[in-house]
């Protein structure tokens, strides 16, 4: 016996063999059956043959539906779930499935280091299942979670049985960043982005020619506001300077390792600068956001261009020297480069100054003539004029989310059903900033009564 399912009907086909009857060969019919045939089973026999045309018609319409892209499935033995795009999948423990167009994204499952945490079932491929390239850091434990598709380009994941400040994740499936990466990798790509609760400000990109004073200004900012800013520690293939520490000023690495990591999608941006490779890893930006700090990136103009094209939504600041002669003087006075390196940096500075001041890439251009005056201007741009601004923002309320969640959406608000009567948890997405790679910031989560969302 088989139970046949399509969206429009269910057919139960009972073959004669199921009734232990073979009408095609009366010799094989059991004597008891022959004896009582007229009395007991004639009705079944007639009904069976009467039903055949109807069953055939139903079968025909099912085949038609299948041809039009609907996938029926046998569900007698398996517990399968059916999705709006016609997919039927057998989900494992702690897996969820979200339909996005022709694809169904299966997320989660028992956490192990090997698993990428995401499987895609794509109707337009021969095999159906696609294992994507997964960018960004995935959530550590998946266990119970609920998902909801947002704007057809990212899946919201809320982890049950967790603290509210670590419960929100996004899996980007069709954002601009993911689209660019798909072209680059030539594979299916998805990107994780952790949701950051609270009003974390936009990251800051600072560019300018070598020796202009970027590092000096960044150090002043970090010293005055240690709890507010965090430095994105870049990777570089250049040799460390005398006072530079691995993991603090840069992650010093070699070219082949860095190239492999770039291929694996670990970098938000990278560029060849003054003959060496420099790059910002996705992790470098994530670490700062996870510490609840505003991320500062000291990167060259090419890197700034790449970040501008990403979803990091940073503020872009370009620092100029008062003159080329002064730049040369500062570079020499710093005493960290050989004459050959100084010449290379000065040559590149011309192109950087041209690009930085005329491309429209930067939101603000500062001239670092008097250091203190330039620092004050930088603080003004960052909204740090008075001492009030330096006060850390009030901590957002952290609470426990229940194991089983159900989600619904009203405008930009996600209602998380907590199971408690009259009480909902609200996730407000109206001020959302950023996204993969890095973190999705500007989320607000609070508990509310039904009448007060
Ligand atoms: N694109 C990119 N540029 C970087 C990165 N880290 C540093 N840079 C840039 O590389 C250039 C050289 O940096 P560095 O060797 O520290 O020399 P300095 O600028 O003279 O202190 C500077 O313009 C930096 O802004 C990075 O991660 N990505
Ligand atoms: N406004 C300024 N006037 C004079 N010297 C400066 C000024 N700003 C920075 N410097 C000096 O210039 C040198 C280069 O500065 P640095 O911050 O290392 O530049 P960058 O990080 O842009 O390469 C350092 O020795 C620093 O002390």
UniProtKB/TrEMBL annotation:
CDD domains: GMPK
Enzyme Commission code: 2.7.4.8
Protein's name in the database: Guanylate kinase 1
NCBIfam families tied to this protein: guanyl_kin (TIGR03263)
PANTHER family xref list: GUANYLATE KINASE (PTHR23117:SF24), GUANYLATE KINASE-RELATED (PTHR23117)
Keyword Transmembrane helix carried by entry: yes
Superkingdom of the source species: Eukaryota
